[in-house]
Amino acid sequence: MAEWFDDEAFWRDLYPFMFTQERFEQASDEVEKIIKLTGVENGAALDLCCGPGRHTIQLASRGFTVTGVDKTGFLLQKAREHAAAACVDIDFIRQDMREYVRPAAYDLAVSMFTSFGYFAKKGEDIRVLSHLHKSLKPGGILVMEMQGKERLAREFQPIGGRELPDGRMLVEYRTIYDGWSRIHNKWILIDGEKARTFRLDITAYSGQELKDRLMAAGFSSIYLYGDLEGTEYGPTAKRLIAVARK
Ligand SMILES: C[S@@+](CC[C@H](N)C(=O)[O-])C[C@H]1O[C@@H](n2cnc3c(N)ncnc32)[C@H](O)[C@@H]1O
Known about the structure:
This protein is α/β, with parallel strands linked by helices and 246 residues long. 33% of the residues lie in helices and 31% in strands.
């Protein structure tokens, strides 16, 4: 059975909301911060679930040899167009994150903007992390950036809505299930008289849960932060960042 993230229409319809010009602009600053946080300044980099290539292109522009992996053809096409416009050469690969592995190939791997926790089976998330571990060179570093469960719990709202920059409305219903492990999102996209419903399920990771999964995948030195500047992962953390070394 197809899973929610296999639906190209989901990524296509929500593209103007998820990948705004502002988010594209932020990626340059985010990559600068990743370089500073990890100390990895050059070499080979993997952007797992690269989407339209926001960080892929910024890494390549700074001289990294970059591989961008994603499953969604529509987003990879966008990434290729952006890379061509930026005159950077990137190896884009269409593959499921559970399958992609290139042993001891990378100095740096990134998983940005909550591109993790999509699978119902815990083992599949660990499989992704094990492949990332395998794909790093010894001493290589993985950076993961996502919404943390601590903030989600602090600010949880079962219903929300907003007007998108292009005038459409997005109504969101959120349900927590499986003992506060998973979140079910029902998103209704309203475009004039038409409405379309998307359903997406994501595992919400606390800092400690993410650390445990990374350890289970073989990472030894793992640090958690609340932003890419390296602020402590404390009560006011906006994001959950893990920096794990092989
Ligand atoms: C929220 S987007 C983030 C994209 C990108 N990392 C960014 O920061 O702009 C999540 C991405 O994960 C990709 N994705 C979802 N499920 C996947 C899977 N099973 N294997 C590979 N990519 C997947 C989607 O196509 C999408 O590009």
